[in-house]
Amino acid sequence: MIDFRQHVGDADHRTRSGLNLSTSRSSRSILNPLSDQGSGYVSAMSDPVRTDRVLQNGPANPLTTPVQYVPGVGPQRALLLGNLEIRTALDLLFHVPNSINDFTDVRPVPKLQADLEQSVHGRIVDRDSRSLSNGRSLVGILLNCNGHFVRGLWFNQPWMLKKYRDNDHLVFSGKPARKAGRWEFNNPQVHVLADDDDIENAAGVLPRYALTDGIKMDQMRRMTRAAVEQFADLVPDPLPEAYREQHRLPHLKTALRWMHTPTTTEQFSQGRNRVLLDDLLEFQLGMALRRRVWNHTLRAPAIDVSAKVDARIRRLFEFRLTGGQDTAVQEIVADLKRSQPMHRLLQADVGAGKTAVAVYAMLAAVASGFQTVLMAPTEVLATQHWETFDELLAESRVKRGFLIGGLPAAQKRELLEGIATGATQLIIGTQAVIQDAVKFKNLALAVIDEQHRFGVRQRAGFADGETSPHVLVMTATPIPRSLCLTRFGDLDVSQIRELPPGRQKVVTARVLGAVEQVKAWDFIRQQVGKGRQAYVVCPRIEGQSEDDEAAVETVYRQLCQGELSGLKVELLHGRMDREQRHGVMDRFRAQETDVLVSTTVIEVGVNVPNATIMVIQQAERFGLAQLHQLRGRICRGSYQGYCFLFSSAEVPDAAERLLAMERSSDGFELAEKDAELRGPGDVLGVRQSGALPLRVANPVRDIQLLTIARRMALNLVDNGEFDQPEFRALKAIVLERFAHVLDLPQTG
Q: Which of 368, 371, 361 is nearest to 303 (CA)?
């Protein structure tokens, strides 16, 4: 394994311990890790007990003061703050507000204007609650604002009646409307004032924080304000002053003041953005460093694709490549010519033909006398690829092998020998291809399909010392830009957006009630009568009750006895043994089965052109990307496809997802919508480290800052500026945070 420390410059190596990111969120990046004291405190934060011991017995850094000693906190609130991972004064400083209440425009009632954001303050003189004819509830609170009366209204929030008491002094903020001669605020933001004299100090721009049970918003504001006053000036800034001035960034201690105690909305935005940008920039610098190590250290065989080889490969296809496929091929060919390893992500919409591009790249490597391998996450997908290559190369002299975990011993030995001698030129398989027993003779290209199922370590599994094959990673699940810049920020990206000519659009419909379900099953019987086939997909294998419509075994039994009785229906799920699964799929491909009732085991790698119908039970349980991937299993031939989304859920987010599926067949558009609805979630897909790599930023919400951080990081690393002494502190922070999480090559 490469010693990463030899290739990242002269940062102090004492800090690279690869701490688990689930420890105190901000302590590692702010305490100066270049001093012996700072480094000691950084390491101490992984153990709260050890932290206390360091504070008691050693020279204490004030920023690691346990949060209970911040004025206004105390032992009881400190325990509650632990639920938010706030254990030190520094953690409290970096508890980033998610929004603000802007009470700067507090007006007398006669000067209110309709539909403009503004505020009023007054005392409660009346509270009432009533039920409406449509079953909804309405709570009203009447304020006396210096002799003028203003009402706040809340629909379906009955608890608001008891939340405030008569004579409480409140600020209402929102967009008022004039109704029956009186001003009303619908669902206003509310701030409670301690007394009449508080309005000048308390009203203004007030941050809003994530809370935990037992801590109120005004208490959190007082605690963060106390932390700012006592500790903010002690926070060092890892960005050099000249760099801050160049990018017009406030000093970090100033940013913390502006974020927690702003006097204007502009101050809040600038302060908060600086804190979020630091988080994103440090992560993007880690990605850029890993990319630089690959480019400057690893060597790959140079593959030159001649016009003759290009023509020979293209003749294998029965179709012309689309414009998107051609562009991707050209980008890959340009990468393969270089002796630096290619690290490229190929993302394509479902059915857009990424496999043809992979075939081209792999055969180009073979034509130059090298070996190539394709690794898939499941046997189903690996088998699908093997059959595709086997059919394409039926008349070819290319020696190929299929390597999966369950091969007979003698067959496996023979295949491993062929790989070791170089006699086997093209290998398809599962993760079995990166096991220790597999020794390639001259591997030049590794293709990794459905990359989101693998971690970076599997991607690096093909490297041998300072030699690495070119790597092409692929996914048929279009990826939001926010995820591309976080999980795949070290890769070049190619996209195939258009579908091959003649590919029909799938008709998608939500099926929301029992009557509509009956009609859908009748339609399916009609289509099967015309010779078509159908999938019925369920979220899980076993049911929680005998009529659980989320369970594949329950649905299979009900359909056989009811809606699809008389048809040839089979069951498929992951707990069946390998022989059973293959037998079921073989019969379905051979059209011996009309309907396949399955779990998401058919999500990728299943290609049955005659299957034109997809029914997804309890569709609200799936994300948009997964729904789109499932829909992509049909309409892979010349017949019209139909996708039915069965759902009875009334959750707004679920309804919005299903509506988006009805309206769009563009996987890239749906991926962005999915990220918007579901948030960042696990931004690294299958978590590679067990912890989210970002402390406070949200790549979906903060996509503009993420884009800026990406550009800043690449500029710093590519032009060598990051190696200058003034960036020494920042580099140490980056390595402390991400050397382990990003699997940066290092000894030990």
A: 368
Q: Looking at residue 416, what is its pLDDT?
A: 95
Return d(Cα 182, Cα 163) in angstroms, integer.
23
As its CATH architecture, domain 307-337+353-475 has 3-Layer(aba) Sandwich (3.40)
Tokens (6 digits) for 106:
């507090």
Alpha carbons 536 and 168: distance in angstroms, whole number: 58
Domain at 507-664, CATH homologous superfamily = P-loop containing nucleotide triphosphate hydrolases (3.40.50.300)
Query: Please, which residues have CB within 8 angstroms of residue 538's CB and are 6 or more apart in sequence?
Result: 549, 550, 551, 552, 555, 597, 598, 599, 617, 618
Q: The tokens of 282 are what?
A: 């440090």
In CATH terms, the fold of domain 105-203 is OB fold (Dihydrolipoamide Acetyltransferase, E2P) (2.40.50)
Structural domain spans, the chain: 4-97+225-288, 105-203, 307-337+353-475, 507-664
Is pTM, for the whole model, over 0.70? no
Helix axes 217-231, 74-81, angle to 10 degrees: 100
How far are the Cα atoms of 625, 653, 671, 686 from residue 677, in angstroms, in the given order?
Answer: 12, 7, 10, 19
Q: By mean pLDDT, which of 169-183, 432-446, 481-495, 721-735 is the weakest?
A: 481-495
Length of the chain: 748
User: Do the domains 507-664 and 105-203 match in fold?
Assistant: no
Question: 323-343: b or e for each residue (b if 16 or more CB lie within 10 Å)?
Answer: ebbeebbebbbebbeeebbbb
Phi and psi, residue 346, nearest 5° = -110, 110
